[in-house]
Amino acid sequence: MALATSSTITLHVNGERRTLPVDHRTTLLDALRDHLELTGSKKGCDHGQCGACTVLIDGRRAVSCLQFAVAAEGREVTTIEGVADGDTLHPVQQAFIDLDGYQCGYCTPGQICSAIAVIEEHAAGWPSAATEDVRPEAGAPPLDADEIRERMSGNLCRCGAYVSIVQAVARAAEAAQGESAQDKSAQGGDLAGAEAGTAVTA
Ligand code: FES
Ligand code: FES
């Protein structure tokens, strides 16, 4: 009996259910771009090396060129087209615009998706390879330029816009931290020092 080489799958992309037939070898990147016309995610290397195709899968960043579309069935996929809130840009998008975090823009969708996850990973206390003290009791390290560069190191920019990209990620992280502090304040929480380890110092 011949094995099936294609299937009809349902992907949850940017809050919508999208049903499509795919060859089992189709990557998530090709499914997004060629089947669903979501061309914001870019194909740079197609080998997991450049980060241009970065999307969020269940809130975690992933290079969509190394993921089969069939493996993404049932998971929440967010692409650059889905990060804004209606007409209001995501704070990371806004920071990239305000601080010129791009030149040609080809790497930018991947940079932004990656930065959104970086900020959440840092807020959750995840260390990086640049973190000096990784003991759990040390808390999250300051999100300084070295930390941002390390955490964003999977996203290459052939235009070399790195200086502005680091600044944009730092600004967006500051904004996210301020928002989080406001939320906690509104909830009557004691913020003094509670999140002291998450300072942004880029
Ligand atoms: S296109 Fe996916 S990492 Fe380069
Ligand atoms: S802005 Fe051109 S590749 Fe990054």
UniProtKB/TrEMBL annotation:
<dbReference type="InterPro" id="IPR036884">
    <property type="entry name" value="2Fe-2S-bd_dom_sf"/>
</dbReference>
<dbReference type="GO" id="GO:0051537">
    <property type="term" value="F:2 iron, 2 sulfur cluster binding"/>
</dbReference>
<keyword id="KW-0411">Iron-sulfur</keyword>
<feature type="region of interest" description="Disordered">
    <location>
        <begin position="179"/>
        <end position="202"/>
    </location>
</feature>
<comment type="pathway">
    <text>Alkaloid degradation; nicotine degradation.</text>
</comment>
<keyword id="KW-0408">Iron</keyword>
<protein>
    <submittedName>
        <fullName>2Fe-2S iron-sulfur cluster binding domain-containing protein</fullName>
    </submittedName>
</protein>
<dbReference type="InterPro" id="IPR012675">
    <property type="entry name" value="Beta-grasp_dom_sf"/>
</dbReference>
<dbReference type="InterPro" id="IPR002888">
    <property type="entry name" value="2Fe-2S-bd"/>
</dbReference>
<feature type="domain" description="2Fe-2S ferredoxin-type">
    <location>
        <begin position="7"/>
        <end position="83"/>
    </location>
</feature>
<dbReference type="Pfam" id="PF01799">
    <property type="entry name" value="Fer2_2"/>
</dbReference>
<dbReference type="InterPro" id="IPR052914">
    <property type="entry name" value="Aldehyde_Oxdr_Iron-Sulfur"/>
</dbReference>
<keyword id="KW-0560">Oxidoreductase</keyword>
<dbReference type="GO" id="GO:0046872">
    <property type="term" value="F:metal ion binding"/>
</dbReference>
<keyword id="KW-0479">Metal-binding</keyword>
<dbReference type="GO" id="GO:0016903">
    <property type="term" value="F:oxidoreductase activity, acting on the aldehyde or oxo group of donors"/>
</dbReference>
<dbReference type="Pfam" id="PF00111">
    <property type="entry name" value="Fer2"/>
</dbReference>
<keyword id="KW-0001">2Fe-2S</keyword>
<dbReference type="InterPro" id="IPR006058">
    <property type="entry name" value="2Fe2S_fd_BS"/>
</dbReference>
<dbReference type="InterPro" id="IPR001041">
    <property type="entry name" value="2Fe-2S_ferredoxin-type"/>
</dbReference>
<dbReference type="InterPro" id="IPR036010">
    <property type="entry name" value="2Fe-2S_ferredoxin-like_sf"/>
</dbReference>
